[in-house]
């Protein structure tokens, strides 16, 4: 069984790579932008014909949310057009496809957790291209699994956790947005869930949400990081309108995990438990 993981240098790809080392029953193939460039659409089928995977886990994405406002074309190629081609190749070659998507497909105006049937209405180009990718994925391969997640972080790469740790060591005061709410999700937990879905005896196509459990603002999240790490920097709350970002972000990104829990018997872990675990790994590696 050959499993192709795209975006292997990202947070989720790195966690899957780490997990693959203790799951050697599969033939794992990890690719990044250098070895499998989604921007080169003409090469996608050629590459897949050569490596002939049985399962593709698509973690690759254009995730520069603000830059996507000025670079819709490249974001659309990577997040939408390439996904559509991969989905069609999988459909034509009896290959399972698990595609990772985002909470940014929603507008964040809800007051209750989003489920998979709720209306999508992305606020920015990143969200629009991710939604187009979801649609193309389902259109070209009705047997695909799509997992929407939110507020991803890990011990790998640049993310909110690593940024707060770095800033807290460099500054006496940090400004953090306090009116956007979500469920911080440890990429290692998502990687485990993906692996559980792959080894599940039954493949259940469709769209699923997966996050850690909990609801916090970015400000609350930063304070939890500060407490666990025992930092002394002052964290100052600011509103979205006073914190300039080119792309509008959803103010509410809580996702209902009931469907994936009930379908695959997946365990949803509290975000704080996972955050402590991730910070412990970072401290041991520093």
What does this structure look like?
The chain is α/β, with parallel strands linked by helices. It has a domain of 197 residues: 3-Layer(aba) Sandwich (Rossmann fold). Helices cover 40% and strands 16% of the residues. It has a six-stranded parallel sheet, with helices on both faces. A two-stranded parallel ribbon has the order 6-9. The chain has a two-stranded parallel sheet with strand order 7-12. Strand 1, helix 1 and strand 2 form a beta-alpha-beta unit. Helix 1 crosses helix 6, helix 5 crosses helix 7 and helix 7 packs across helix 9. The longest helix has 21 residues. It starts with a strand and ends with a helix.
């Amino acid at each position: 069984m050959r499993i192709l993981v795209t975006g292997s240098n990202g947070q989720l790809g790195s966690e899957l790579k780490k997990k693959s080392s203790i799951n050697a029953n599969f033939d794992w193939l990890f690719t990044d932008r250098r070895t499998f460039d989604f921007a080169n659409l003409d090469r996608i089928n050629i590459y897949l014909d050569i490596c002939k995977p049985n399962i593709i886990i698509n973690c690759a994405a254009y995730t520069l949310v603000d830059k996507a406002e000025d670079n819709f074309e490249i974001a659309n190629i990577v997040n939408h057009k390439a996904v559509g081609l991969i989905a069609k190749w999988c459909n034509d070659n009896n290959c399972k496809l698990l595609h990772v998507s985002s909470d940014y497909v929603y507008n964040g105006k809800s007051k209750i957790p989003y489920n998979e049937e709720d209306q999508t209405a992305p606020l920015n180009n990143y969200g629009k291209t991710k939604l187009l990718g979801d649609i193309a994925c389902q259109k070209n391969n009705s047997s695909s699994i799509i997992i929407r997640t939110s507020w991803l972080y890990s011990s790998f790469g640049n993310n909110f956790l690593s940024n707060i740790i770095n800033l807290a060591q460099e500054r006496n005061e940090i400004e953090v947005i306090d009116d956007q709410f979500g469920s911080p999700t440890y990429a290692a937990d998502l990687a485990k869930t993906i692996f559980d879905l792959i080894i599940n005896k039954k493949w259940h196509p469709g769209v699923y949400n997966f996050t850690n459990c909990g609801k916090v603002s970015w400000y609350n999240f930063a304070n939890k990081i500060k407490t666990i790490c025992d930092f002394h920097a002052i964290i100052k709350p600011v509103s979205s309108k006073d914190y300039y970002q080119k792309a509008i972000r959803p103010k509410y990104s809580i996702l209902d995990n009931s469907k994936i829990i009930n379908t695959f018997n997946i365990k949803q872990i509290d975000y704080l438990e996972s955050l402590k675990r991730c910070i412990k790994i970072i401290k041991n590696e520093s």
